[in-house]
Amino acid sequence: MKDMNFFQRGISRTLLLILVIILAFGTGLFTEDIIQKYYQRVGASSGLDFSLLEEVFQKIEAGFVAPEKLDKTKLIYGAASGMVESLNDPYTVFFDPEETEKFEEDISGFFEGVGIQIGIKEEQLQVIAPLEGTPSQKAGVRAGDKILKVDGASIAGMPIEEVISLIRGPKNTTVTLTISRQDWEEPKDLKIIRDTIKVPTLKWELKETQDGKKVAYFTLFYFSDIIYKDFKEAVYEILNSGAEGIILDLRNNPGGVLSQVEEIAGWFLKEGDVILTEQIRGHEQKHKSKGPSKFVSYPLVVLINQGSASASEILIASLRDNRQVPIIGETSFGKGCVQRLIDLKDGSSIKMTTSKWFTPSGEGIEGKGLKPDIEVNLTPEDYQKGSDPQLEQAMEIITS
């Protein structure tokens, strides 16, 4: 999701300014007098003092032991990354052009790697969800797993994006994750062979309850930037299928693009219903359903677990608060903030937390998640047998 509001453009200009200054130093373009006047003018207009940055660069250029190793591009990206890291927000990250390209591949749902979404919870790096049909899921990775090491090296205190770069890699290469799980006595190593990942957006099938009622079992895997196209095709199939109710499965859905989930919510909510309230630097903005409300009259049950995060939690909360839809499963992940990808002129970008979001009832979920109305846990035995008591409970509820 990309946005360029006034605040974000200001940040972009600052980073671009640093880039221009360092490149100018490297080519000898600026004289000392010009630099000083430039800093004075920029400092006065922005409230920032770039003289320390200038001094650091000059000291490095004049005294570093191996001048032939100086890479001015890496210096500027390092300065930009350091500025962003100083915010101490695990979801705010500077991407160089190569990293930007990889991130945009992730959003599109097509990339090389193991297919795993990770995040910070209780100051611990955790698996939000393994994506459907990916090597991580096939290797047995589960939502809630704690990653301790990558290829034998501890990742304690490492930024999320750095961990992601270690886990990702070309097709047919191997990565070993050391995993801690609540029902394990000690951590285990999971060896995963990377592959080309094409994340499916959704699937649905028609099920029949014990009393003969037809129910559409509708699973949304990930809110990629193309899901709405697939969603519209699926909903018209459901509308023409004779389904009398819908079970919406958002388990292990790690989120995605906000605009896509808003479009989808409009099919389940009345026009004008609040989907979420976004709080942006003290100002509140209500996001409301625009319809078309085709599923408003359908009985609906939602399945969630600890792999349901971010955008999927927005959809869950909007259905709960507006329609009192029964929620079945386990407490969700708890990600109550919004990031936007801000493009910079050299092809780099910032993924930056720009707002917090709250449910239609005003609840903040950051770090605590959404609790189900009916708690049903999947046990290790359920995984081994391939049984799904959460879905079974949903089938009973929608019948009643």
Automatic annotation (TrEMBL):
| One GO MF term | serine-type peptidase activity
A GO biological process this protein is involved in?
signal transduction
Q: Which domain of life is it from?
A: Bacteria
* Alphabetical list of SUPFAM superfamilies matching this protein: ClpP/crotonase (SSF52096), PDZ domain-like (SSF50156)
**SMART domains assigned:** PDZ, TSPc
**For the PDZ domain, which residue ranges apply?**
100-182
Query: Could you tell me the keywords of this UniProt record?
Result: Hydrolase, Protease, Serine protease
Q: Which Gene3D superfamilies match?
A: 2-enoyl-CoA Hydratase, Chain A, domain 1 (3.90.226.10), 2.30.42.10, 3.30.750.44
Gene Ontology CC annotations of this record: outer membrane-bounded periplasmic space
Do you know which CDD domains this protein is assigned to? cpPDZ_CPP-like, Peptidase_S41_CPP
Give the similarity note.
Answer: Belongs to the peptidase S41A family.
Q: What protein am I looking at?
A: PDZ domain-containing protein
